[in-house]
Design brief:
Order of helices and strands: HEEEEEEEEEEEE
Number of helices: 1
Strand order of the largest sheet: 1-2-3-4-5-6-7-8-9-10-11-12
Structural class: mainly beta
CATH class of one domain: Mainly Beta
Largest sheet: 12 strands, antiparallel, barrel
CATH topology of one domain: Porin
Number of strands: 12
Strand content: over 45%
Length: 256
């Protein structure tokens, strides 16, 4: 049974707007030392085909001495109604919570812990838990928001799947983050690959590309592309769902 029950498009849109306003209010009262951003995007279409899509994303991080802590959440919902309610379908229904910790051991070397709790109703993933830890290395740094980091380590993944066998893997992880500025715009590219040691056919690859254009000191306009390829997707029968999931998101971002 899905954790979130279907709701009307207007209720979903109102809920996302309320969450964004609440997160912005919290950001204004954030204690010293914390920084982050809140982004909201979406669209509503009415006509021959009715559709609704919305996304909310928030991150907050704090640095002190040689430590960095970053917390994040992301939620996306999409629904299409081609003929007035008779064949309405949910195209997107996913939520993520993330926690990332980094300890800087030297100018370039660091140790990290990366944790994720998520679900994706469309992909039949009722619950996913991923935990990773290992070393990281800053290969290049060219100033503020201009760097290249690589990471490697080991971790664990659990997936509770609807109508399919659950996954429990001990895995290896490699990841990279590239960030640079293009005039006033900020470009960020991340990539991650998870390879289970006991079942290599259940590997998972993810990437995110974002380009943000500042509007004011606190507000910006961001385009982002999220890709996830699961070599053994959930489904009943197996592989009913697509291997590749792609989300293109246009958002208004408030930074604090």
């Amino acid at each position: 049974m899905s954790i979130l029950r279907p709701c009307t498009p207007f209720a979903t849109c109102a809920a996302l707007c309320t969450l964004a306003l609440a997160a912005t209010a919290v950001a204004d009262d954030a204690p010293p030392g914390w920084a982050g951003k809140v982004s909201l995007g979406g669209s509503i279409s009415r006509g021959t085909t009715d559709s609704l899509s919305g996304n909310l994303e928030a991150t907050a991080e704090r640095s002190w001495d040689d430590h960095l802590l970053r917390l994040g959440l992301r939620a996306a919902y999409g629904r299409t109604d081609p003929d007035g309610g008779h064949n309405a379908r949910t195209d997107n229904d996913e939520q993520y919570l993330t926690q990332y910790y980094r300890y800087t051991a030297s100018k370039r070397l660091y140790l990290f812990g990366d944790f994720e709790q998520s679900r994706d109703a469309v992909q039949d993933i009722d619950f996913r838990l991923i935990a990773n830890a290992g070393p990281g290395y800053r290969i290049w740094e060219g100033g503020e928001k201009r760097y290249l980091d690589v990471e490697g380590g080991i971790g664990y993944r659990h997936e509770s799947r609807s109508g399919d066998a659950n996954l429990d893997n001990v895995l290896g992880r490699t990841a990279a983050t590239f960030s640079t500025s293009i005039d006033a715009a900020i470009f960020v590219q991340t990539a991650e690959f998870l390879l289970p040691f006991d079942s290599t056919g259940e590997w998972l690859a993810r990437a995110r590309t974002s380009l943000a254009f500042p509007l004011t000191q606190s507000w910006s306009f961001e385009n982002s592309l999220n890709l996830e390829y699961q070599n053994d997707p959930a489904g009943d029968p197996p592989n009913e769902n697509a291997n590749l999931e792609l989300d293109y998101i246009v958002s208004l971002v408030y930074s604090f």
